[in-house]
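agent> call fold_tool(seq_1)
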Amino acid sequence: MVRDFRDLVAWQLAETLKCEVFAFTESGPVARDFRFRNDIRASSASAPANIAEGFGRFRPLQFAHFLGIAKASLAETQNHLIDARERRYIDGALFSRLLSRSSSFILAICILATESFLTLSALLLWAYFTTTLLFWLSGISYCRANFDSGVFLTRHVLV
């Protein structure tokens, strides 16, 4: 069971990618290109930070939102990796390894986002059926859920 954001595989993969990006930008010509170095470091650091923040929100919809931001940060990091290869800042083997790690990270985020969405859907269905049952027991005949916004609309009609 996941009790902390550090238990999430997606966070672990993002953290590993971040550490590797920081390591390869410490020396060589990439270290002297301050703007590029800062950009790739910021985008790689953003992904684990957004996963941690989303996990701390305790709401599936908010968590899914932050996973989307983390995935976008990863896409930016992948773009920087391609740029680093074109500038000859990174060799082919390291480029392939980092791109492979980032692809694994994207997959982990998609799985986590799906789980978060399923949790949200289950909560909405549970709330809908519980509310419907309570209204039925209390004599209220109509209850409808708007699943797009998560708002439950009720019409009180005496039977």
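agent> call fold_tool(seq_2)
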Amino acid sequence: MFSVYLMRRLATPLTTLLLATLGTSAVARADFSATTTLTSDQERLTPNTSTATMGAMGTGTVFYSTALNTLTVTLSTQNLAANINGAHIHFIAPGGDPVNSNGPVKYDFISLAGLTSPIPGSAAAFTFPTITISGLTPADVQTFLDGRAYFNVHNAGSIPNSGVANFNGGQVRGNIVVTQVIPEPNSIVLLAVGGLLPAAGLLRRRGAS
């Protein structure tokens, strides 16, 4: 009986305090992450066959922190036709096809990592330094959540019968599809508050009967 009485007495003040403390930050937000494999058949508008014929590929990851408003990016590649002369995340405009559209460069890894182009010795295998990007806008975040961002890695090389004259437009591409969304602590607290409010009402009804 004591525990029920105590919960009934504390439920309303506690929920009021939590909501007042959270304030405007109580709006649910989330961190997110994604891992993508870059391959030649994802290139647009002209895919090429170099993944199948020479094993050209890459792996890219992104992790977004709402608390810091930062995007942490990793990128590695292997078996390219020539040394890397461009590596980017591109953004596709709202309404564009995430798979079949191209978009302008948003983040240039060579510049962000302080490297020179082309990167010496990068054709066989290369891993970029981990890059942290700050100051994302809500529109930037939404672009990732919508799947309208992609990795693209370029070089000046070519291979016979690959489908393209050279890879200056990109040899391997990976569309970034967010697969894991992690609620912020505030969102978790709100879930708890959401469960506490009806419980408080139930206790009041029982106490009044």
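agent> summarizing second result for user.
The helical segments are 2-22, 50-54, 109-112, 138-145, 185-208. The longest strand covers residues 30-38.
agent> awaiting next instruction.
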